[in-house]
Every structure is written in structure tokens, then in C-alpha cells.
Amino acid sequence: MNARQLEIFRAIMRTGSVTDAARVLNVSQPTVSKVLLHMESQLGLKLFSRARGRLTPTPEAQLLFPDADRVFRDLAALRQLVNDLRAGDGGSIRIAASSSLAETVVPRALTRFRREHPRTKISSHLLPAAETAEMVRARAVDLGLTLSPLSDQTLHVATIGQCNMVAVMPVGHHLEHHSRITPRDLVDESLISFSSDTHFGRLLDEAFVSSGVTRQVAVEATMSSVAVAHVAAGGGVALVDRFATMFAPTGLVWRPFHPTVNLSVTLIESPNHVPSRLTRWLIEDLRHCVGILDASV
Fold this sequence. Notes:
Radius of gyration: 31 Å
CATH superfamily of the largest domain: Periplasmic binding protein-like II
Distance between the termini: 61 Å
Helix content: 40-55%
Structural class: alpha/beta
Largest sheet: 9 strands, mixed
Order of helices and strands: HHHEEHEHHEHEEEHEHEEEH
Number of helices: 10
Strand content: 15-25%
CATH architecture of the largest domain: 3-Layer(aba) Sandwich
Shape: rod-shaped
CATH class of the largest domain: Alpha Beta
Low-confidence stretches: none
CATH topology of the largest domain: D-Maltodextrin-Binding Protein, domain 2
């Protein structure tokens, strides 16, 4: 059966007559009769016996109906999905992001996105930058977002914003009155920061060297959120990206770090994957939220 025959067969089975099936389908009775006769001829099966203007399903029709009904509902669901996708609704998007981006930019962008596309299924992952890139490479996610640059030729990367590093400390800390924090200010502090073998760590090492001091890290953290948590617990002063200050608990303050250490917000896509319209719209929301947050932090 083709889709039209399937629809008419189902309607006759459910209503019990050609007339009622035609009314339900909003077509003429001769059209339904013609399709039914052609369908029986094509299948080589008699589907209905006719008596007193009513149709009685044959045993063959009774056997066909459950599967025919299931296929019809599957086709209806497929049509609805196509309509949803055409309208920019439905479907699914998977995104992975590193540390503070996963806790600031991504939630806000997804909230903005879902106002227009509430039926889209979202999968959001917080991962280190390297694993985020690997997830995109393996097509386990559609998009990746990191604060670390990538030079991988197998991926498509684009800068969609900037932020810089700041110093986070408890309220009442003796450095709170400083308008900015320098490497020399941190020489005698318990510094919570990133390892020198990370992108963030290497940039900070260069900043300290340019100020004539060596960066001594008391507690190494792999994520900004972890570093902020150590500060909240009284562990010292942390150097993190500015986005991290947005989820810092009460009782903490931040100050600009000088010399300025700039970080690029990097969007990662697979170069061989054509993004859906939903994905393109989400990218625009990510760009928007990066700009708003960078300006407001």
C-alpha cells in the first residue's frame, strides 16, 4: 500500500463504510471507492465484503489492520517531525562546553533558544576543553564551546567573543581595596590557579614573568568553578576567567588582573557536518549571550 491507500484502508476499517470514510477524510465517496478497488486489485486480496451498503472486513483485512495502523501512525509522526523541523521546532541539539562556559553562557543561550523552540530536545555536557573537542570530532555532540584555542585541522573553529582573567578573593581580604591585582600582589598569597601545562597556566606564567616574578601555585585546579569553590572555602586567592565570577557564591569579590590576560571564546564544529537550522539558530544565541555576559561581568 502507498500512503494514500493506507490512509483510506484505515479510515474504512475505523468507520465501517465508504461514505463515512470519505467524510472523515474530506474527499468524495467515488474517490474512496476507486482507491479501494485499485488497492484490492494491486494487492491481489479481497479486503471487504459488501452487503446492504456496509463493508465487512475480510480475515485478510483484519490481519493487515494492526500493522497498517502502526505504519500510518509512524508516517503521521514523521510528517509532524518534518513540519516541526521546517518550522524550526522539534529535533535535538547536543552541546558540550568547558567549565564556566557550561555554567554561564550555555544555560542562558539555551533558555533564550527554547523560548522560540520549546520542543527541541537539548543535551548539555560540561567537559574539559580537550574532551569537548574530542566529542565534536567523534560527532557525539553538535557543538563545542571552550576558552582554549584549537589548531586542529579536523575541526572548524571560530572565535565568538572574549573575556579576561580576574582575581577572586573573600570579602574583607587585604587585597580587596586594590583597583587591580598584579603578579607582585600575589607573591605571598596562597594562589589557586591552573597548572603550567594548561593553556590558562601558560598565559599566566607569561604574565608573571613579564612582571619579574615567578608564579607559585598552592592549589592547582582544572576548572574555574573548582578554583572559585576553593576560594569560598578559605583556600586563598584564585585567578580565573571573568565568566566564573557569575556563579561565585556570596562572600567573594573579584578584581581585574594586570597585565591583562585575554581568553577567546571558541566555538567548535565538525567541518564535514552541515549544521541544521536549529543548530545555526543556537549558535546565534550563543554569540548573543557571550556578548551580553562579557559586557556585563
